[in-house]
Description:
Helices cover 2% and strands 60% of the residues. It is mainly beta. The chain has a 14-stranded antiparallel beta sheet. Strand 7 (137-154) and strand 8 form a beta hairpin. The longest helix has 6 residues, at 11-16. The radius of gyration is 20 Å and the shape is globular.
Amino acid sequence: MRRTLRLALLVGALLLAPLSALGDGPESGFWWSPSLRVTGVVDDNIFFTRGNEDGDVGFWIAPRVEAGYSSSTFAVGADVGVDVRQYLDDGGINDQQVRATGWGEVTLLPGLDLKLRNAYVPQAVILGLPDDDTLNNVQTNRADATLQWSTQLAPGRSFTIGAIGTHFLAEEHADALAIPGGGFAIDPSFGGNFLQGLGFMQVDTSLAERTTLWARTQASYRDFTEIGDADHTNLSMLVGLESRYWKGFVLSLSAGAERCSSTGSARASARWRGGGRSSASSRASRSGSAVGTCARRTCAATTRPRRAARSASSSASAAPPPSTHVAS
């Protein structure tokens, strides 16, 4: 059994939020938002084992800076930070993880947009184990290029069609891979690198003032670099709701299903008058393996949804805004 107690202080909300007022926000030219998160951890089973449980106390420190520039035809930005994990007794699990995301998007023609995004972030190897523990994370890099066209079908309803190309790289790590005849074998240097092409269609419908319901279907093909027999296609469907009914407050809900997996998420965020912001989110998922089999293990990040480029976040825990949902 494992029990953890985590107390997080969003120091940036108290100390650094006034600095973000130097920019007027992403809707008016240059903007930036520094923050610092400090988390205290009390864990009675840091290695997540049965028997010989080992407890420890630690501190996680995560400085972060988001910045960007936007205009009527293009936007660019970056989200850079580092997670420093330090424990008092067992230094073997201390680690530093880098998070660096950059993005850009430009309007080529009315309704036609090009979006580029690159994310160098740590992500979980095994679903079901804590995805924020250093022992369950590897460093990954994912580059996405999206070309999409949108048009109005009727008042309050829009249609979007597009294609996404993805190049994914992960540092080598030990993982269990399916073998012919059944069972699994441990590969000590698995990377899970792949190329992927994805096509999607999405309909957005306005339900009320500043409230939008979206539905999306998509198909993809994934080509693995190291394990060619694991190349596979995937079909998925997603639905979501985003509401900005209350000024400064955003509520996002989403759910999706695909081959051997399903996911659901909820997120609420609020922007303060001084430029600061706070948010709360929750996510539940069931996933197949990175190679398309219905296993409980998965390679880091190869089956997890990513947020859209303009959201400027390296977290995968929240639903994206309408017309920009990107799933792996």
